[in-house]
Amino acid sequence: MNGRRRWTAAPANRAKRRPALALAALPLAAATLLVACRGGSDDIAVDGSSTVGPITEAMAEEFLKQADLRVSVGISGTGGGFEKLCRGEIDINNASRPIDEDDEKEGAACARRGIEYVEFKVALDGLTVVTHPGNDFAACLTISQLRAIWDAGSEVDNWAQVDASFPDLGMKLYGPGPDSGTFDYFTKAVNGTTDQSRSDYTASEDDYVLVQGVEHDAGALGYFGFAYYQGEGSGLNGVAVKRDIDKNGEPVEGAACVSPTVDSINDGTYPLARPLFLYVTRDALADADVRAFVEFYLTHPQYVTDVGFVPLPEEEYRAQLDLLHDVSPGGER
Amino acid sequence: MSAEQLQLSGGARTSFKRWQGRAFAALAFACTLVGVLSLAVLMYEVLSEGATRLDIAFLRDLPSRFPEQAGFYPAIMGSLWVMGLTALLAIPIGMGAAIYLELYAGRNWLTRIIQINIANLAGVPSIIYGILGLAVFVRAMEFERSVLAGALTMALLVLPVVIIASQEALRAVPPSLRDGALALGATRWQTIRGQVLPVAFPGMLTGVILALSRAIGETAPLIMVGAFQYIPFAPDGVFSRFTVMPVQIFTWSARPQAAFRETAAAGIIVLLALLLTLNSVAIYLRNRYQRKVKW
Question: What does the pLDDT read at residue A248?
Fold first, then answer.
C-alpha cells in the first residue's frame, strides 16, 4: 500500500478525479433529492375491474373539468382491487361482482384490518351471447339450451344437437378465461354454479380476440360484455335469451325471448344483466372530495352510455344517492 | 466400383458441395429477411393505422373516453420520469459494479458466485422484478405506487444487463494498455481513470442505452408495481402516481371501441420514435468518444 502511494502523481492530477467521484456520488445525491419532495394527498386512487374502469375514467374525465383534483384509475381486476382496498392502498374499487365476505384477501382481510366499506351500484352490463353474422337460425336461445352447450362435461359440438330445427353445422365456442368476472357471472347465471363450465373452448381475456374469432367462423357461438357488443362486436348477431328455467333449474312459465338492448337491460327483462359496483372505504367517504366524486358518478348516467354500458333505472340511482347521504363518516350504515 | 464411376461421383460431389454453399447462403439470407420483413409489416400496419391520429394535440392532451380526443401526454411524461430516474440509479451502480468485478476483484469463489448470479439475473422474467418491486419498494419501504418505486424496480431489472455489457467493454481493452500504464508508474486508479475507462466508455454506454431501450418497452413489471391505466396529469415528483407509454397503449388496445385501435397505433409510433432517438443518441455518443481515443 505504502509502496504504491509513493508512486502516486502530484496534486496537479487531483482536479481530474472529480468527474469520476461525482459520478459515483450521483445515486446518493439523487436519493437525498428524492426524499425531499413527497407528493400531496389531494387525489383519489381507484383500482379494480377492467370492465368498470372505462366508466370510472369517463366520470373522472368530466368530474376533473370542474374540480382541481387528481383521480387515478388502475385495472388490477376486481379481485386485485379488493385486495388493495382491504390493505388500505386505494380509496375506491371498481367491482364487476360483489365482494366475497369470506375470502382471505377480500372481506376477511377488510374485517381483520378494520377497514369498512360501502357498496354502490353504479351501472348495468348485459352479457351478450353472439353468433356469426350469417347465422339466421339461432335468433333465440333458452337458458337450458345455453346450459346444455356450456356446462361442464358438455359434448355439444354441432348446432343440430341444440335444437332439431337447427342445421347440421359444426359449433365452435368462444368465451372469456376463468380469471374474468364475466366468466364468473355467466357460469353462475347459466350453469348454476360459479366457475362451472366446459373448458374445451377458445378462451381469451381479450374480448377483441373473441370478436375476431366469432366474426370468422360460421358456426361460432361466444359471449362477452355488452360494451364490446356495442363497439367492436356490433357486426355480430346478438342472440335473444329466454329464461325458461330459474336459478334452481325449475321451469318458468310464459318466458319470452329478450334481445340484449339498452332498454331491456335497463328495465331488468334481459336475463343476463348484471350490476357493476363501486366499493368505497368509509375513511375515503369522510373526505369531501371523494363524496363529491361518488355523487357526480351517481348523478351523470349519460357518461355510462358513452362507454357502452347501461345506466341503472332512475329510482335505483335515487336509492344509491340516499345511501351516500346516509353514510355519515365512521357511523353505521 | 470402377475408376470411371469414382471419377464421376467425385465430380458430382464437388458440384454438390458448391450447391450446398449456395443453399446455405440463401438460407441465411432468408433468415435475415424474416426479421426485416416482419419489422416492415409491423411498421406499415402501425403507421397506416396510427398516422392519422398523430398530431401535436395527441402529444399534449390528457386521456379521454373518446378515442379521437385521447392524448398521450401523461404517459410520455411518466415514461420520461421513470426512465430518467432509472438511468440515474442504474448507470453509476452498474458501471461501478462492472469496474469492481473486472478490474479489482480477485479471481476467487466469491467473485465466481457473484458473476454466475448476475448472469442468471439477466435472464429472470421481468414480471418477477415486478413482484419484488411490489413487495419491497411499494409495500415494505412504503414508497407506494410512485415513480420512485417504478424506477427502482426498473433499475434492478436493467442492472444485470448494464453490468454484463460494461464488463464486456472493459474486457475488450487491450491488457497491454493497462500493463504499459502500470509499468510507467501509474497507480491502479490512475490506470483505470486515464487509460481503461476512456477506451471502454463507448462500449459501456452502448450497453447501458440498449438496456434502457429494452426497459422503456416493459409493461408487466410496472403494472405489478402499480402504474395506473388512467392518469390525467404528468408526474410532478418522484412520489407522484404515474403511468407509462406501454401501459397506456395496452389499455387502449383493450377498449371496446374500434377507433381506440388507431389511438393505440399512434401511441406505438411515438414509443418507436422515442426508442429510435435513444438508440441514435447511443450511436452518436459512441462515435464521439471513440474518436477521442488515440493510442
Answer: 77
**Hunting for cell 365476505 — which residue is that?**
A101
Please tell me the distance from the alpha carbon of residue B259 to that of residue B265, in angstroms, as a whole number.
10
A139 in B contact zone (CB under 8 Å): no
Measure CB to CB from residue A232 to each of B96, B226, B256 and give the nearest one: B256
A38 — pLDDT class (breaks 50, 70, 90) = very low
Q: pTM here? A: 0.82
Q: Where are the domains of chain A?
A: 43-124+276-326, 128-271
Rounded Cα distance, A118 and A110, in Å:
12
Domain B59-292 has CATH 3.30.413.10: no
- Tell me the sheet residues that pair with A44: A71
Query: What is the Cα–Cα distance from B79 to B58, expressed in whole angstroms?
Result: 16
Q: Find chain B residues with C-beta within 8 A of A180's C-beta.
A: none
At A203, give phi and psi (nearest 5°).
-105, 135
The amino acid sitting at A128 is T
Taking the domains of chain B in order of start, what are their residue ranges? Answer: 3-53, 59-292
The yes or no reply on domain A43-124+276-326 and CATH 3.40.190.10 is yes
Task: State the count of interchain CB pairs (< 8 A) between A and B.
Answer: 114
Using CA atoms, how far apart are residues A287 and A44, in angstroms rounded to an integer? 10
Place of cell 382496498: A85
User: What are the chain B neighbours of A228 within 8 Å (beta carbons)?
Assistant: 256
B117 CB within 8 Å of a chain A CB? no
Is A30 close to B190, i.e. CB distance below 8 A? no
Closest-CA residue in chain B for A72? B231
For residue B190, the chain A residues in CB contact (below 8 A) are 8-9, 13
pLDDT value at B101 more than 70:
yes
Q: What is the pLDDT of residue A18?
A: 45
Return d(Cα B247, Cα B219) in angstroms, integer. Answer: 6
Q: Which residue has the cell 364487476?
A: A96
User: CA of B85: which chain A residue's CA is closest?
Assistant: A30
pLDDT above 70 (res A27): no
Mean pLDDT of A210-214: 92
> Which has more confidence, B266 or A13?
B266
Note whether B89 contacts A: Cβ–Cβ < 8 A. yes
The answer to whether domain A128-271 has CATH 3.40.50.10490 is: no
Cα-flanking dihedrals φ and ψ of residue A5, to 5°?
-60, -35
Which residues fall within 8 angstroms of residue A185, CB to CB, at 6 or more apart?
A: A96, A97, A127, A272, A274
Rounded to the nearest 5°, which phi and psi values hold at A96?
-100, 5
Smallest Cα distance from A155 to chain B, Å: 31
> Does the beta carbon of B228 lie under 8 angstroms from any beta carbon of chain A?
yes
State the helix-helix crossing angle for A288-299 and A314-326, rounded to 10 degrees. Answer: 170
Q: Given a cut of 60, is residue A297 above it in pLDDT?
A: yes
**Bridge-partner residues for A281, per DSSP?**
A117
User: DSSP class of residue A187?
Assistant: I
Cell numbers linked to B230: 388512467
Q: Give how far A4 is from chain B: nearest CA, Å.
A: 7
